Amino acid sequence: MADKDPKGTIRYKYKFAFDDGAEKQFEIALDAETLELIQTNDQPKPEWTKLKFSQCENCPLPESVGYCPIAVNLSKLVDAFQAHDSYEAALVTVETAQRTYLRKTTLQKGLSAIIGIYMSTSNCPVMDNLRPMTRFHLPFANSIETFFRSISSYLTAQFLLMKRGKEPDWELNGLRHIYKAVNRVNEGMSQRLLDASQKDANVNAVVILHSFGDGISYFIDSDLAEIEPMFKVFLKDSVEPAEHDDVRKPPPADPS
Amino acid sequence: MNERILVVDDEESLRLSLKFKLKAAGFDVDVATDGEDAVEKLKTKPADVVLLDINLPRMSGIEALNYIRQTYPKTEAIMLTGFADFSSAIECLKMGARDYLVKPVDTTELVTRVRSLMRSRSSERALEQVQEQYSSVLVNDLIDPLRKIQGMLDQALKLSADGDAKERKKLLTSVRKLTNSMEQKLEQLIELTKEAAKNMAVAQSELNPIALAEQLKAIRGDLE
Question: Does B30 contact chain A (CB < 8 Å)?
Fold first, then answer.
């Protein structure tokens, strides 16, 4: 894989530079094969990181785990921004092995991108479904870009399932269910961050992630109307899906 | 025509998800990126409800609310609050916002609150219409005839006890006709009240036509 370092690690370096000259930097390291967050042992474990503290209603982890893995991994970041307003302007730089992204944006937008990585790579069983997307992380993405990445990632998984003889879900019903569960986690996490913060930057960063999760169901319901024209080259000889619903489904398996 | 909602939030993903939810619920939805943008959008196309984030760059949600309440009193506002905004949310309610929602906004709760506000608005408009009708009926059909009755009764009282019997009867007959007419108008008011009560979630009126009708019936009984 081109963007991993010689140690087989994918790195995302986030730098937040504020108008008053202050800067904060964070580096995330992922295992290039599993996309699992490479843990450091110096993460603080404040009260709000305990598993039972505002535990997500759909949390499948046993009590013996003790601490929410996402909360623990977020604790340093959350503490760094706990006294910041969501709409503060920040020059956010994201460095990867392949490229550097730079954008003057709101703090909540920059934070939502990095929190999104932590949430999907911390071994939360619900959030694990989004982990493949982190390999194609796109900082400062708007809703449509995020929907497209989500759907592309999910359809890739369906293709791989089909190749293994499994029934693929081309209708994206499973993706709706994934995001429904993901948003229960976003809600639980926002409750934790309410307790961990004095101001709203951290919470609103999770609210942004929640809004992506909310929006994608409606986007699927629209039959991807907003991006459909971009696929005209593939669709020019096809019939309208509303009149011929069967064209959206894969052809039946050859009985021979 | 669908009710029109203006969603005001500086974050694109929030605007889009709220727009999706509200459109799916049947509302006509437009979006604005901050308070100033909201004011410009309202100038060109008024909204029934504004969903207004409190923490906005440039013109804050509170400043925008103040402007909207003064300039577009018929436009209702629901505030969107994040962390540590509760005191601001209360301040907004005092300034005339009708409700507030805490982010992340639950879809069902959002649609329920907006629909509830729409019903409340509809009831209030119905109440305003009823009050206008009350005022019209009271002035033209009740208060004016009542003053005539008072004049006629004053005249009748001035007549001598044994003389002017014919004149007294004439006056009392006129009074009787007027009370009949007033009774009919009060019956109409009662029907109007019943109809309004059906349509209004909260019917508030200082007028009590039922009690007024009882009083007039008593007067008529005394006259007879």
Answer: no
